[in-house]
């Protein structure tokens, strides 16, 4: 086993979701973000990476 199971990503919503596609707003909610400048710490999985890639223009990753 490797140490990959304990890796996390911190994301922050830095742009407004007003005017974005409905599926992008749903993805933001799925990532656990509710309002501007809210942050979420998530497990680093391929599923999470795909969601982040879909709405990367709205997010900042730390």
Properties at a glance:
3 strands; 2 helices; globular; 62 residues
How would you characterize this protein structure?
The chain has 62 residues and is α+β, with helices and mostly antiparallel strands. The chain contains two helices and three strands; from the N terminus they run E-H-E-H-E. Strands 2-1-3 form a three-stranded antiparallel beta sheet, with no helix packed on it. The longest helix has 9 residues. It is globular.
Most strands sheet: 3 strands, antiparallel
Tell me the radius of gyration. 12 Å
Main structural class: alpha+beta
In helices, the fraction of residues equals 25-40%
Shape: globular
Number of helices: 2
Q: What's the count of strands?
A: 3
In terms of topology, how is this protein built?
Elements: E1 8-13, H1 22-30, E2 39-43, H2 46-54, E3 59-61
Short structural summary:
This protein has 62 residues and is of the alpha+beta class. The protein contains two helices and three strands. The protein has a three-stranded antiparallel β-sheet with strand order 2-1-3, with no helix packed on it.
């Amino acid at each position: 086993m490797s140490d990959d199971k304990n890796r996390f990503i911190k994301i922050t919503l830095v742009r407004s979701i007003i005017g974005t596609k409905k599926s992008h707003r749903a993805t933001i909610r799925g990532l656990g973000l509710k309002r501007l400048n809210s942050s979420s710490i998530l497990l680093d999985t391929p599923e999470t990476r795909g969601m982040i890639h879909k709405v990367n223009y709205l997010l900042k990753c730390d």
